[in-house]
Write a structure and sequence with these properties.
The chain has 236 residues and is α/β, with parallel strands linked by helices. The chain has seven helices and seven strands, in the order βαβαβαβαββαααβ. Helix 1 crosses helix 5.
């Protein structure tokens, strides 16, 4: 079991959420020498496209392409993610295990109920991980920062990361999820993610955030805690 500390630990409600929301940032961070891990909270078994086994294989392929230092899955149940004591302990143990300085999760105002629940769950775990009297497998640890990444929304961006150099490989990594983006088995009149125009939407989305900071492509983040300027070196 590899328990080496991570610089960044990304919690994703479903396989591919981390890549969609911050794939460019992950690639850029790994290229800069940072250790990055992703923990999926579910196996995506309720998804309209693909099944749990296919999505697990796709996540493994994407992880290898990105060069992740760890990928795991808490298997909380697709459509069943809940902020409860048992799930909090699982998330707390992950944070403590990897002693990560930065924790990432989607925002609490995301439209997907699993995403909303994931944000609340990880917000709680981020705080509880530092409490010694909460006993889990690993000892207490206090992570430094909790950031929220965006998948579709970007109403409250605290800062953005220039991913211009890493946008093309981000798109290639997303193609690892064949069941979602290449060969989706879609029901009649399906209109949402996975349609032929979705990569155009991703490009427009990251290009819009990039324009806001004067670069070609960027990914945005929300912080509930104040940030000092200039940003610390570990956020650049």
């Amino acid at each position: 079991m590899n328990d080496a500390p991570l610089d960044m630990l990304v919690f994703a409600p479903h396989p591919d959420d981390a890549e969609l929301g911050m794939g460019g940032t992950i690639l850029k961070s790994i290229a800069a020498g940072k250790r990055v891990g992703v923990i999926d909270l579910t196996r995506g078994e309720l998804g309209t496209k693909g099944d749990a086994a296919a999505r697990a294989r796709e996540a493994q392929d994407a992880s290898q392409a990105m060069g992740l230092h760890y990928r795991g899955n808490l298997d909380l149940g697709d459509g069943k993610v809940t902020d409860n004591e048992g799930n909090r302990r699982k998330a707390v143990d992950a944070i403590r295990r990897f002693r990560c300085t930065q924790v990432y999760v989607c925002p609490p105002f995301d439209r997907h109920p699993d995403h909303q629940a994931a944000a609340k769950l990880i917000q709680a775990a981020f705080f509880l991980a530092r409490l010694p009297k909460l006993e889990t497998e690993y000892p207490a640890f206090s992570p430094r920062r909790l950031f929220h990444y965006f998948i579709h929304d970007w109403r409250t961006i605290s800062f953005a990361v220039d991913i211009t150099e890493y946008f093309p490989p981000k798109k290639e990594i997303l193609l690892s999820y064949r069941s979602q983006f290449i060969d989706p088995d879609l029901p009649p009149n399906y209109r949402y993610i996975g349609t032929s125009h979705y990569f155009q939407q991703i490009e427009a989305y990251n290009r819009t955030i990039g324009a806001a900071i004067g670069v070609e492509f960027a990914e945005g983040y929300f912080s509930e805690s104040p940030l000092s300027l200039p940003l610390p070196a570990d956020l650049e």
